[in-house]
Design brief:
The complex is a heterodimer. By secondary structure, chain A is an all-alpha fold. Chain A is built from three helices and no strands. Helix content of chain A is 63%, strand content 0%. The longest helix of chain B has 34 residues. Chain B is elongated and about 50 Å long. In chain B, helix 2 runs parallel beside helix 4 and helix 3 packs antiparallel against helix 4. Classes of the chains: A mainly alpha, B mainly alpha. Chains A and B meet through helix 1, helix 2 and helix 3 of A and helix 2, helix 3 and helix 4 of B.
């Protein structure tokens, strides 16, 4: 993987989440960092996302 | 005799350098397909959480009347683009995990570059709202 992209993405995400004091998000990221493997089932679950317009209803 | 010792020392010195070089190479662990997959999964999952947190905060501001319709439309547009690219990236990751070859990794990397562009746009839109949330700023924007 392109290291530059990887570092940019991780820094931007983690910095924003931690700097702006969002403890729930920080906990999720921390759990993610403890993960040691990824399965196809994990990916299937991860693909579930809410449509953006639903956050405004 | 002195010359012989010096030559032997030089040979020994070169041998030590070679041994250090070999041991250094052995110690450098190349990244495996499993390592790559895990790193990319964590990256995408982090972006997914960031998207969720960001949209939740902007949605709450909107419900309080603190987000204009134009900004709402823009956030929804980029938020859905980000959802699409994250989903496609996860699908490419599935293919990479199944095949573990360079071709699928290259496709995944190409996709991640597009993802990075959309993610950057989304961050630029969302971070001002995160700052407003963190500082308790309730002005319209």
């Amino acid at each position: 993987m392109d290291e530059k992209i990887k570092v940019q993405i991780m820094l931007a995400s983690v910095d924003a989440l931690f700097t702006h004091g969002l403890p729930a998000a920080a906990r999720i990221i921390n759990n993610l960092n403890n993960r040691s493997e990824v399965t196809l089932e994990d990916i299937e679950e991860a693909k579930k996302m809410i449509d953006a317009e639903d956050y405004f209803k | 005799m002195y010359k012989s010792i010096t030559t032997r020392n030089q040979s020994l010195f070169i041998l030590i350098i070679i041994l250090f070089s070999i041991s250094g190479c052995l110690g450098a662990k190349p990244s495996t397909p499993e390592d790559n997959a895990l790193t990319i999964f964590k990256t995408l999952q982090t972006a997914k959480e960031f998207r969720h947190t960001g949209l939740s905060i902007v949605g709450d501001f909107y419900k309080k009347g603190l987000v204009s319709e134009d900004n709402k439309k823009e956030v929804i547009k980029i938020g859905n683009e980000l959802k699409e690219i994250i989903t496609v990236s996860f699908e490419c990751l599935e293919v990479y995990i199944k095949t573990k070859n360079d071709k699928s990794l290259n496709i995944l990397n190409t996709n991640l570059q597009l993802y990075n562009e959309i993610y950057t746009k989304f961050s630029n839109l969302i971070i001002p709202y995160l700052i407003k949330e963190a500082t308790g700023d309730n002005t319209n924007g």
